[in-house]
Model the fold of this input.
Amino acid sequence: MLTLYFALALFLLLNLVAGMWRVLRGPTAADRMLAAQLFGTTSVAVLLVLAQATDQAALRDVALVFALLAAVTAVAFVRRAWSDRETNHDAE
Amino acid sequence: MTPSDLLSTVLLIAGAIFFLAGTLGLLRFPDIYTRLHALTKADNVGLGLVVAGFALQAESLAAVGKLLLIWVFVLLAGASVAHLVAAAAQHRGIKLWKR
Done:
């Protein structure tokens, strides 16, 4: 079971690394933000796997905080960073 | 290996496959709307399956409740992010992808 857990954690981390490609490519700021969303969901899963594998229940609380922050970051991005047309951060 | 261990393993591997699908969608799909579609749905199902897999192994009912709470928060985040980003993208005039 332990081997499966660590293999799963490694696989999810590789997903995160693949998501980095989208951060580099863009093309819009929102695409980069979507990669951040991927990191949020996947890191929650990684933390749950590690909590089970290393028998540290505290990591589940970390996952809970990550899940809450994922919503806040994206809402802040849409409302503050991406709402005005003038400041065009997009490489289009 | 007990039956619950076996079921948990199957759920965890199925969850990993959904995460892979979400990542592939983020990398391969052509525009922001299709990427939103891949990411916010496939990843949330993947996390749901992982949560279900660990809920079978949980030591207490409180631990199961916490796992479910985490999933519910991620679901809420995913749904609101998909809606807000798609609405903002349309407001900025980003065109829908056409073949």
Q: What stands out?
A: The helical segments of chain A are 2-25, 29-54, 58-81.
